[in-house]
Amino acid sequence: MSLHHVFDQEFSKPTVFLDRNKIMPHYTPENLLFREKQISDISRIVAVTLRGQRPDNLFLYGKPGTGKTSTTRHVMGGLVKYGQEKDLHIRNAYVNCRTHNKKYKIFLKTLRELFPGQPDKEFQGYSAAYLYEKLVSYVKESKTHLILVLDELDQVKDLDELIYSLTRSNDEIPMGGISVVGISNNLMFKENLDSRTKSSLCQQEMVFPPYNAEQLRNILEQRIQEAFNPDAVNPSAIALAAAIAAQESGDARTAIKLLLRAGELADEAGEKQITDKHVKDARKDVEQEIILEHVSVLPEHEKLVLYTIALLSLRKSGTGMTKLSGESMEDVLYSGEVYEEYERVCKKLNFADVVTARWYREYINQLEMYGLILTTQSGAGVKGQTRFIKLKVDATKIKEVLEKELVG
Fold first, then answer.
1. For the chain, what is the mean pLDDT?
2. Which of 69, 48, 67 is nearest to 57 (CA)?
3. Is 66 annotated as ligand-binding?
4. Residue 308 annotated as part of some ligand binding site
5. Most confident among 179-188, 201-210, 266-275 (mean pLDDT)
6. Residue 376 annotated as binding site
7. Which residues form the AAA+ ATPase domain (predicted)?
8. Would the CATH topology of 36-207 be identical to that of 211-296?
9. CATH class of the domain whose range is 211-296
């Protein structure tokens, strides 16, 4: 069979999609539903640049898929466009810190955005100090207000140095300035910063709440109008996808990925409408993908704690424990034994900065908030007071993914 014939067959196949790109997780619609307050609050903070003032640094927190990045990029795009119309010197640079996870890489990426026509040889190969001076000189000489959006900020390895240098850079800039909008899934990341860095921040903070099932249903309906043929999605399938995503995490990306995969399954079966069955089948594929995405963006020590829980869960699989009352509990771990094993894992992997028991408890709370583990107090029938921990996801998968990232 010729390639021409294969492509001809694929091209002529019926599909439920009108524009598949509009149901992809990276697509941002013009109208962001249920984030009006966040849009208004961020806009108010950065709008002082229009009057020639430097805005406060801003830190945005929330679970993955709660609209932090989309909302920020929406506001920044609007601010820069308005500034251009008014002939104001306002620039914005966006950096994904998971990809650019060091101060040097962040400065390099920022300069590439500020000087899009410049050849790489102008910047590449120079020190971080040179790139910093180049960045400050640009802002100072052009009297520009630069708002630097640092997405997944907690992934930066030399975060203290980066934040301190950016915040203190304004001492050298009489007109204009550099402000940071930091985006993170981790509410606690700032606590690990050096005291001098924290004192220089001058920041405001905002938390993005998860979406509920009704909000997710409305978000899906908005996307469906753009992405699917008329009547290609059964209303029951929309409600089911929204309910699954709300139950799992309140993550809009989960709901969108469910519907995307359900559409692909309908196409593969040659069916004209997406039904509950397609959504249920899609869940099997999407669930693991979403979990592994969430795991990969955790801060380093949350990864280490989760990795420890996965190791212990595999080691103790099927052994269970019995309360004094006779009640059996399968595949549960004691909080204390997890912490002791975490200390051993850190030593084995050469992580010198083992966190205290207090921070360990905070990380356990975070992992439970993400839906990766389940905890419960020991209660009656157990000698002493402790917390039981149970892994809610596939221990083997978690171990495989985190070993690649932590061990290499």
1. 89
2. 48
3. yes
4. no
5. 266-275
6. no
7. 54-210
8. no
9. mainly alpha
pTM of the model: 0.83
Residue 188: CB atoms within 10 A of its CB come to: 16
Q: What is the mean pLDDT of residues 75-102?
A: 96
91 known member of a binding site: no
Q: Take residue 193 and report the two structure tokens written for it.
A: 């910063």
User: Which CATH code fits 300-406?
Assistant: 1.10.10.10
Residue 35 assigned as binding residue: no
Fold of the 36-207 domain:
Rossmann fold (3.40.50)
- Displacement of CA 174 from its chain's centroid (Å): 35
**Domains in the chain: boundaries:** 36-207, 211-296, 300-406
81 is in an annotated binding site: no
336 is in an annotated binding site: no
Is the per-residue pLDDT at 320 higher than 70? no
* Phi then psi dihedrals of residue 376, to 5 deg: -150, 150
Three-class SS of the chain: CCHHHHHHHHHHCCCCECCHHHHCCCCCCCCCCCCHHHHHHHHHHHHHHHHCCCCCEEEEECCCCCCHHHHHHHHHHHHHHHHHHCCCCEEEEEEECCCCCCHHHHHHHHHHHHCCCCCHHHCCCCCHHHHHHHHHHHHHHHCCEEEEEEECHHHCCCHHHHHHHHHHHHHHCCCCEEEEEEEECCCCHHHHCCHHHHHCCCEEEEECCCCCHHHHHHHHHHHHHHHECCCCECHHHHHHHHHHHHHHCCCHHHHHHHHHHHHHHHHHCCCCCECHHHHHHHHHHHHHHHHHHHHHCCCHHHHHHHHHHHHHHHHCCCCCEECCCCCEECCCEEHHHHHHHHHHHHHHCCCCCCCCHHHHHHHHHHHHHCCCEEEEECCCCCCCCCEEEEECCCHHHHHHHHHHHHCC
